[in-house]
Amino acid sequence: xxxxxxxxxxxxxxxxxxxxxxxxxxxxxxxxxxxxxxxxxxxxxxxxxxxxxxxxxxxxxxxxxxxxxxxxxxxxxxxxxxxxxxxxxxxxxxxxxxxxxxxxxxxxxxxxxxxxxxxxxxxxx
Length: 125
Description:
Blueprint: H1 2-37, H2 43-52, H3 56-63, H4 70-83, H5 92-121
Helix pairs in contact: 2-5, 3-5, 4-5
C-alpha cells in the first residue's frame, strides 16, 4: 500500500514538474516574440520603459503620435494636459499619464539621438 502511495506521489510531482517546465518555455517564447514585435528596440529603450512604466507604443497612443516629432509631441501634450486639468473637470490621473507619456517619448528621443551620434562617430574604412 505504501509503495503504491509513493508511486502516485512521484508521478504527481513529475506531472506538475513537466507542466511547470512547459509553461516556462511558453512564457520565454511569448516574451521573445513580444521583444521582436517591439521592433528590436535596444537595451536602453527597454530600461526607459521600465523606469517610466510605459512602453514606447503606449506613450505614443496616449499622446496620439505616430513618429517621434518633438513639435507634434509638444502640441498634443499641451492640448491633453489642458483638457485633463482637474480645475476644468478633468482627471488628475489622466493628466499624470499624459506627463509620463511625454517623459517616455522624450527619453526615447534622447536614446535615438545618442545612437545616431554613436553611428556617426564610428570610423569608416
